[in-house]
Design a protein that fits this description.
With 265 residues, this protein is mainly alpha-helical. The protein is built from nine helices and six strands; from the N terminus they run H-H-H-E-H-E-E-E-H-H-H-E-E-H-H. The protein is 36% helix and 8% strand. The structure holds heme C (HEC). Heme C is lined by residues 84-86, 108, 111-112, 115, 184, 190, 192, 194-196, 201-203, 206, 223-224, 227-228, 231-232, 247.
């Protein structure tokens, strides 16, 4: 599915260029979206060595409330700390020259194993694995032949198809990003679907709500960005960027039928 989506209008290079914030040491190869595996930027490796030698690594906190690129250098040794979306669970990963999808999956399953031990009742991953498709939007065919305000004199089949085509395109773009460590700019080859198959447990219907790990009321997009920072270690998205719009669309689409319950924890 990921391969098929690659043909879509959201090209990865373009996606990355529009990211709002450049993390330190983003290499030109990464910016060009080359390949699936990533090369650890040498500037960061040097920074890490410097901190190890001087012992200053400990002085830098992991920046849970306000993640910064400094957190990358705060591993304190030859490894990095990857934090889960909950702001509590974390794992240490050896710094590598290259990160592979297998490595990313191992990181994700380690974090999830820890999280499941703390949350034994949460079987959402298994439950949702049965669904591996994008939820279709609402069916509007019953509107064909009717009029709607001043916009359409008469709604035709072509109109209804156009609405659906445009909508599914945005949702599919979101799916592509959600499933792609590269499109997310992950330094460690982790993507959202590794822990949220078909966007399970993202609960878009509960936003906005106060999120302790962020320290304020979060919109869905704020939580998406938090999760891009931890645990994906990707590149933050501008709130109005094409990628953020697509991710919101996909996540919301996957939870079709849920009752809106903003503020629900
Ligand atoms: C390593 C596993 C992992 C990865 C990767 C991951 N998440 Fe999460 N995410 C979780 C867990 C576990 C929770 C639940 C945390 C909690 O209950 O506090 C969560 C929570 C969330 C929530 C909040 C759900 C709620 O109930 O309010 C959103 C939204 C979310 N993730 C989106 C994403 C997106 C988007 C990505 C990719 C950019 C992503 N996550 C990547 C494990 C992961």
């Amino acid at each position: 599915m990921e391969e098929a989506m690659r043909e879509g209008p959201m090209r990865e290079g373009e996606a990355r260029r529009r990211h709002s914030r450049e993390r330190d040491g983003a290499s030109p190869e990464a910016a060009a979206g080359a390949g699936r595996s990533r090369t650890a930027p040498s500037t960061r490796a040097l920074t890490r060595v410097a901190f190890t030698v001087t012992g200053l690594g400990l002085a830098l906190t992991l920046g849970c409330s306000e993640p910064t690129s400094d957190s990358v250098a705060s591993g304190g040794g030859d490894d990095i700390e990857v934090e889960l979306c909950d702001g509590e669970t974390s794992t240490r990963v050896p710094a590598r020259a290259e990160y592979t999808r297998e490595g990313g999956l191992a990181i994700a399953s380690d974090l999830m194993a820890q999280w499941k031990r703390r949350n034994p009742d949460a079987e959402w991953v298994e439950a949702e694995r049965e669904k591996h498709r994008i939820e279709p939007p609402a069916d509007n065919t019953d509107l064909i032949g009717k009029t709607q305000g001043h916009t359409y004199s008469r709604i035709t089949e072509r109109h209804v198809k156009e609405w659906e085509r445009e909508l599914m395109q945005l949702v599919a773009e979101g799916s592509q990003i959600f499933h792609s460590p590269d499109a997310l700019g992950s330094e460690i080859a982790v993507s959202c679907d590794m822990c949220h198959p078909d966007a399970a447990n993202t609960h878009p219907e509960t936003y906005p709500k106060f999120q302790t790990q962020i320290g304020r009321v979060a919109l869905l997009r704020d939580m998406i960005n938090w999760c891009i920072e931890h645990p994906v270690r990707g590149e933050l998205l501008a709130a109005d960027s094409a990628e953020m719009r697509a991710l919101e669309a996909y996540i919301t689409a996957q939870r079709k039928g849920e009752t809106m319950q903003y503020g629900k924890h």
